[in-house]
What does this fold into?
Amino acid sequence: MALATGLRFEIKLSAGLDGGYLRNFDVTVGADKQLKFCPDNVKAKVGDTLTFSFFPKNHSVVQSDFAHPCKPLNGHGGIFSGFVPVNTTQGPQNFVITVKDEKPLWLYCAQTTGNHCQAGMAMVVNEPAAPNTLAQYKENAKLSGISEVPPAIGGGVFQPNPKASSSGTAPPSTATAPPPSASTVPAGCPVCPVCPTGEYKWSQPSTGNGYKRARAFAG
Ligand SMILES: [Cu+2]
It folds into this structure.
């Protein structure tokens, strides 16, 4: 896994295509012990970001295409977060990708223990019209055989996760556990498995000039 060695600021001078602002979508990976991305169907524009936060036990984000569910794009290329083992509530680092175009972007988890992709752990950005829907991708995934893992991490950056536990150990799980809504599911993400479609979190309001404000990335 890439480790943050410092922070740098990157100012995006390209406005969102809607002329207003770019957005970030927070996506949980395996939250609530479910083999799901949440949300799993996002409509995004060029320059928008998706920030993946990882939950136990060991998930990944891999890009594929519709025709090859649970297989890396072009056999090897594309987005890959690596496997992110998590023992605590959330992993210490998030994986952030930037939407490069508005073509459909298919993502899955390549964990073979439990066959996560075949069990439906997949998502889409900019879902195409029928018949190539997310639902159909998941149907095809059931028959896809063993998931494949890309050889190298790429296609995104890691950022510190402000919601991660700093102790490195699992929190108490019985009498002193916080209310269910407190920590395991980010605010704004409804209880899975029913994930919303599309836009539920806006990262920053427009500043009026069409530019996104500076944003820190792990470098
Ligand atoms: Cu997984």
Confidence is low (pLDDT under 50) at residues 1-14, 167-219. The pocket of copper (II) ion is lined by residues 30, 35, 59, 109, 111, 116, 121 (CB under 6 Å).
